[in-house]
Amino acid sequence: MKQNDLILFKQQFSDFCRSFHSVNSEDQRNFDLKEEHTRHVCENMVGIGRGLSLNANQMLLAETIGLFHDIGRFPQYAKYKTFRDSTSVSHGLLGADTLIEKKMLQTLPGDEQEIIIQSVKFHNAFAVPKKEKDEIIFFIRLIRDADKLDIWRIFLEYDEAPDEDRASAVGLGLPDVPEYTEEVLANIFKEEIVSLSNIKTLNDFKLLQLSWVFDLNYKPAFRLLLERDYLNRIIAHLPQTDGIKTASSLLKEFVQKSLR
Ligand SMILES: [Fe+2]
Fold this sequence. Notes:
Blueprint: H1 3-18, H2 25-51, H3 56-68, H4 73-80, H5 91-101, H6 110-122, H7 134-160, H8 182-189, H9 202-211, H10 219-227, H11 230-235, H12 242-259
Helix pairs in contact: 1-3, 2-3, 2-7, 2-10, 3-6, 5-6, 6-7, 8-9
The structure holds fe (ii) ion.
Fe (ii) ion (FE2) binds at residues 69-70, 91, 123-124, 147.
């Protein structure tokens, strides 16, 4: 693909966002948050891509995947008024379908279209699919890293904001109580990603976010995680019990090990 393709895609994406404009301020705020998230994810794609010394064409593909990864959020919210996939649809799948239906990638060769579509489709899947081509898996892993890095940013903004300024959708409406679920902490001890279905409190959700480090793929992503101090900042908002302290040392050790 060429630089001009990316310029066109950016234009198409902002036109697409504008087509969902809502007079309802809460709805519009949710759309704006997704547009802002997209900008940050594109930056993360470029940052990780540079760290991996991708060639010019791969960098353009990476940025395009960042740009379109959450395109499904717009029709999802317009139809279901929620970003919860479990009560609506997979927004990755919907995004891939949207790109195909709207023929948005038409100017690109077929193999590049496939890379972008599959990366959008699987960016939010519980795990990376095993049966894809290596090149596609490479980009699926890349978008998953770039996306997680920005979700940590969003969640911390929520955590660090005064109560009255919090966008309620970010905390998933979970009770902000001192408790956490032992099984959730046990996932971290086993270096497993916490499943959303086990989450009962806001602290569980913070532990789930921490467990994402086990699904991070590339060293430049681990470096960005450290630079931005996301782990310590999330841990600071958890009760400092012995269990949490042990989990946090384990997580930090995992990051150090991944950078070696
Ligand atoms: Fe997403």
